[in-house]
Amino acid sequence: MIKLNLDEIVSLTGGRLLRAGQAEEITGVASLDEAGSTDVSFLGNEKYYQDFLQTAAGVVLIPPAVPENPDGQTTSALIEVENPSVAFGLVVKKFVSAQRKFQPGVHPSAIVAEGVQFDPEKVSIQAGVIIESGVRIGAGTEIGAGSVICHDVSIGENCLLHANVTVRERCILQNEVVLQPGAVIGSDGYGYALVDGRHETIDQVGIVLLEDRVEVGANSTIDRARFGKTVVGEGSKIDNLVQIGHNVRIGKHCLIVAQSGLAGSTHLGDYVTMAAQTGAVGHLKIHDRAVLSARAVASKDMKGDTVYMGMPGRPIQEEQKKKAAVARLPKLISQVKELQKRVDALDSSES
């Protein structure tokens, strides 16, 4: 079990120790309301300030705005950091890396075709894995139980493929790619043509390219291109239950959140965020640093550096004005009805 002292946590987070408190050895991480004396926690949102005052955490990472000796908070060691959430993530990573034991080698139940290029002393292939011919696997990569790697796939260094992942033929994973359980990379794109009253399959002969440090969530699917490549750019993070269609191109450091879907040939710039249950119709461009808030739909090209809301997606200020106007409709209808009664009364008196 890994143990950290205050000096090590300060060094790891780049913070400043404000108060030593009663902390001795830290062995875990937890939320403010659940942490004990051997845990690190963090105050990342002012909504949790009361939890902070009452927490039993051994160490709390706090932002610069918090007083050095807040009233009521007497037991925790306090470390000031620029961004508590990011600093907390560094501590979590330290504990996770210690818990994950990389054990190189090939499990006896794995089926690895002849000619697969890898160093068994530097790669971990777990139980029930199937790896077809022509595959290349870089050093430090781990392939989880029950995964299937189809022929001529290229997997870079230090990748982590969790259990039951499927990577279809000829797809490319660069370095430090993470695939959560059940992810499918390179399934056929959804392409059909109506011929003589029947939907005929259009062959999908392209590939998927995941660049360095891409992460794909559980049960998410990324379709191979009809021809060419479906691309997810460096550092982009895809959540669980996301559908990426064929020939989509996602830029660098994008965030695609749960249950979102991108239709074929959608192009995203860099640092685009698509919140939960957002969607994009095909053959459009969403430019750099655009943000689609939850359930927004991109139905046409979207400018960058703008937050969008609604269906179809509009700049958030426009959509909020529309919603405010809709909220006033019941009152306006009542007012119109009252005015109509007065008009009818006037008409009756004149007649």
TrEMBL record:
Q: Does the keyword Acyltransferase apply?
A: yes
EC nos: 2.3.1.191
Write down the Pfam families for this protein, in alphabetical order.
Hexapep (PF00132), LpxD (PF04613)
Instruction: Indicate the quaternary assembly.
Output: Homotrimer.
The pathway to which it is assigned is:
Bacterial outer membrane biogenesis; LPS lipid A biosynthesis
UniProt-recorded name of the protein: UDP-3-O-acylglucosamine N-acyltransferase
The keyword RNA-binding is annotated on this UniProt entry: no
Which catalytic reaction applies to this protein?
a UDP-3-O-[(3R)-3-hydroxyacyl]-alpha-D-glucosamine + a (3R)-hydroxyacyl-[ACP] = a UDP-2-N,3-O-bis[(3R)-3-hydroxyacyl]-alpha-D-glucosamine + holo-[ACP] + H(+)
Function in brief? Catalyzes the N-acylation of UDP-3-O-acylglucosamine using 3-hydroxyacyl-ACP as the acyl donor. Is involved in the biosynthesis of lipid A, a phosphorylated glycolipid that anchors the lipopolysaccharide to the outer membrane of the cell.
Q: Give the GO biological process terms.
A: lipid A biosynthetic process
Q: What GO CC annotations are associated with the protein?
A: membrane
Tell me which positions the record assigns to the signal sequence: none
Segments crossing the lipid bilayer: none
Q: What is stated as this protein's family in its record?
A: Belongs to the transferase hexapeptide repeat family. LpxD subfamily.
